[in-house]
Design a protein that fits this description.
This protein is mostly beta strands and 328 residues long. It is built from no helices and 28 strands.
Length: 328
């Protein structure tokens, strides 16, 4: 039986625009941080101890910020805007100027994906200038690695996830496309390994759990599509989870592999068990579409929060199933 729906433990206001993206950074020092990117072009660095914005960066000429992340080894903030640029920021010692930037050529909403390959070196994947193109470069050198273009007409690249498998082979990337397809790519070989039709509408978002080789994707319809990789790297569709209302902006699996959170167009955040995708809770607070969800990476499991960002310009913070509850 589902627990009663909780209330947020607190909220963050003052972002000044829709919250397209959220990213926790709780490993550096004693101050847990939450980064947010807004539709008005602002990046806020929220101090979760004081619950106030410690720094505000305007870095994309007023264009919508669609993705933020941090490069843990270097302490660098990375952001993507609809001005067709990815910017790298050194926020240490009070700085707030971009150290470097990468021109993507894409005006879409496909969020970048970043993967650490060695200390201080990363791969960055992003939608390219061509409709179906995914480009991958190395950072900080910005050396081109490859360009991935499918041999079939799949439409615009909508979402991507880059990871390093435990098998020892090169990096893999899964991409969702406008026609509802998912495609798995071998980055080293620059080749497509498998493809599956997961949705009748464009794939709006996806997430992938590298521990159990399972993923889930969402669309504008009322179904979440669950899928996995077999030992031959074939994408295998599994169960669908039917939602009460259609439309999902973002999906996120908690690091312990127990929970899945979805950002709904119906103003709600939904929590599911991840081992068995079943509904656990519906979080109701926001007055407009929820655009982003993120789980905290805090070392103390009791301090691991869920953040949700909405079109209503607010961020809600929740403490969900943090007492070792059975969510399987």
């Amino acid at each position: 039986m589902s627990r009663p729906a909780p209330s947020p433990i607190y909220t963050l206001r003052g972002a000044g625009g829709p919250l397209n993206t959220l990213h926790f950074s709780c490993h550096r020092g004693d101050t847990p941080l939450l980064f947010s990117g807004s539709g008005k072009g602002a990046i806020h660095m929220w101090n979760l101890n004081t619950r106030r914005a410690e720094k505000i960066v305007e870095g994309h000429c007023g264009s919508s910020v669609v993705w933020v992340s941090t490069l843990q080894e270097t302490g660098t903030l990375i952001s993507q805007g609809r001005d067709m640029r990815v910017c790298l920021w050194d926020l240490s010692e009070g700085r707030s100027e971009a150290m470097d930037s990468v021109w993507t050529g894409s005006v879409g909403f496909c969020q970048c994906s970043v993967l650490e390959t060695s200390p201080g070196t990363h791969l960055l994947a992003f939608a390219g200038q061509q409709t179906e193109e995914i480009k991958i470069i190395e950072l900080p050198s910005k050396t081109p690695v490859c360009s991935l273009v499918p041999d079939a007409k799949l439409g615009m690249v909508m979402c991507i996830k880059l990871w390093q498998p435990d098998s020892g082979q090169g990096p893999l990337l899964v991409a969702g496309y406008e026609d509802g397809s998912l495609s798995l790519w071998d980055v080293t070989q620059r080749s497509a390994l498998s493809r599956a039709k997961a949705h009748p509408e464009p794939v709006m978002c996806l997430t992938f759990d590298i521990e159990c080789l399972r993923g889930v994707s969402g669309s504008s319809d009322n179904k979440l599509s669950s899928w996995r990789l077999d030992r031959q790297n074939n994408l295998q569709l599994q169960d669908y989870v039917t939602l009460v209302n259609p439309g999902v902006s973002q999906l996120c699996v908690r690091a312990d592999g127990k929970l899945l959170a979805s950002a709904g167009w119906d103003h709600r955040v939904r929590i599911f068990g991840w081992k068995k995708p079943r509904p656990l809770a519906v979080l109701q607070y926001h007055t407009d579409m929820v655009l982003s969800v993120a789980f905290s990476d805090h070392q103390d499991p009791r301090q691991r929060l869920l953040a949700a960002g909405s079109k209503d310009h607010r961020i809600s913070l929740w403490s969900i199933y943090n007492e070792g509850a059975d969510t399987g």
